[in-house]
Amino acid sequence: MNLSSKPPDGVHEGAIGFASRLLAPVEDIANMVAGIAIFVLMVLGVAQIGLRSIFNAPVVGYIDLVELSMATMAFLGAAYCQRLGAHIRMELLIGHLHGRLLWLVEIFGLLCGLFILGVLIWYGWDHFLRAYELGDTTIDAEYPVWPSKLLVPVALSFWFVRLLIQLAAAIHMLIDPSQYQEGAITSKDVVEVAHEEIEGAFGHGTAEAPGEREGQNR
User: Cα angle vertex 34, ends 30, 37, to 5°?
Assistant: First the structure.
């Protein structure tokens, strides 16, 4: 992603847009790591079944490895999904709102999300420190659990920063809804989501288009 590229016509960039594009590669890498973890777990599951059925020699600590990988798969891709607005939003109500009322509701929702994530990050870090200081391990293979617990507040921090960017963009849109602010939350239909996923799969990248929610700025 080219951080120095100019935004599309009709999009206000500014510091908010730059921050959004600066965070995007971090989110992409985190999401890729989560995807790789899922793939590795699938391979490990096949190996576990094969080794156990054929050679009666299961993978040592397989259940422990599955448990430790849960944080990677569950949290690392959250900020990426938040940026794309994919599989993470409920829009039964706000999908019918427009103009300043829409952005007022978005701001309220973002503030609630920031509060919840802040609490989770605080206590997640506390759990990590406790596990690290006590040398906590899994029950079976005795793998250390602190790396997995550290991943929770780190991944949630990426999500927290993304919400902060979207909050700043939503406030900008509330003040001046006449021009789309890069980094603001966008609502996409199924076709738009599929198109972005295809572009991402073939390495063309995804750009946030202005006015993706038709009439949302008017």
Answer: 135
Into how many domains does the chain fold? 1
Q: Is residue 88 part of a domain?
A: yes
What token pair was written down for 214?
Answer: 């038709």
Percent of the chain with pLDDT over 70: 78
Distance CA 132, CA 135 (A): 5
Domain that holds residue 85: 11-201
Domain membership of residue 108 (yes or no) is: yes
Give the count of alpha carbons within 13 A of 35, CB side only: 9
Question: Which positions ≥6 away from 66 have C-beta within 8 Å?
Answer: 41
116 occurs within a structural domain:
yes
Which residue is associated with the tokens 């572009």?
199
The pTM score is 0.79
